[in-house]
Design a protein that fits this description.
216 residues, alpha+beta, seven-stranded antiparallel beta sheet, 8 helices, 7 strands, elongated, disordered N terminus
């Protein structure tokens, strides 16, 4: 019986996808959402029609209710499959760099689930693949980067990361250590952004009358 043999490098490349492709779970325009949300008017139900199911609904230490949404989760896998074939088939240590970005919006809700305020946040980083996978060059997005269309290439992210290091020379070692040990992906980045804005978040107490999901 004839058996089709596919080199492992080719097989992995087929799984990874074609050249110059991008994978994304969400791709919602933050600028559009910013123009649509209205403080003290928009409700949580209105927001879910625009944004889908919240990634979490939690409370801050002082009792403020927060709903977190993913707007953009994207990996720019330009030339990834081509790099993977070369590295795997030659048993070399060719490194693949995958820029990743996440953008989030956090809604502050009153007791009637009306939006009283909202904040945007975002993060970009590099996933480096070379036998092992690790994340590095973690940067916090500016409001301009969140609202405008930006091509998050590896060169751009590394450049921004170097700028941050130069501006925070005294904190260089701490920042490098945090990024070197990070394996934080989209959902983890969402929670980190929420914690940076609001501090520790806690699960909601069960309340069947309001039907608010108990999650974080």
């Amino acid at each position: 019986m004839f058996k089709l043999m596919i080199p492992i490098g080719v097989a992995l490349a087929l799984i990874a996808g074609c050249k110059n492709t991008s994978s994304q779970d969400n791709n919602i325009d933050a600028a559009h959402i910013n123009s649509v949300l209205q403080r003290n008017i928009t409700t949580l139900s209105d927001a879910t029609l625009l944004l889908g199911t919240p990634a979490f609904i939690s409370v801050t230490e002082d009792g403020k209710k927060i709903a977190g949404f993913n707007l953009v989760n994207k990996a720019f896998t330009d030339d990834f499959s081509n790099n993977l074939i070369k590295g795997t088939m030659s048993f070399g240590r060719k490194t693949s760099l995958i820029p990743k970005v996440t953008k989030n919006v956090f809604l502050e809700l009153d007791e009637n689930n009306v939006v009283t305020d909202y904040k945007f946040a975002g993060t970009a980083w590099i996933e480096k693949q070379n036998f092992f996978v690790r994340n590095e060059a973690n940067i916090t997005l500016s409001q301009q980067e969140i609202f405008e269309k930006q091509d998050f290439t590896a060169e751009y992210i590394y450049g921004r990361y170097q700028q941050v290091l130069l501006q925070n020379i005294q904190d260089n070692y701490k920042m490098l250590s945090e990024n070197d040990s990070s394996d934080c992906e989209y959902k983890c980045q969402l929670y980190k952004n929420a914690n940076d804005l609001y501090g520790t978040l806690y699960k909601l107490q069960s309340d069947n009358s309001k039907k608010i999901p108990e999650q974080i």
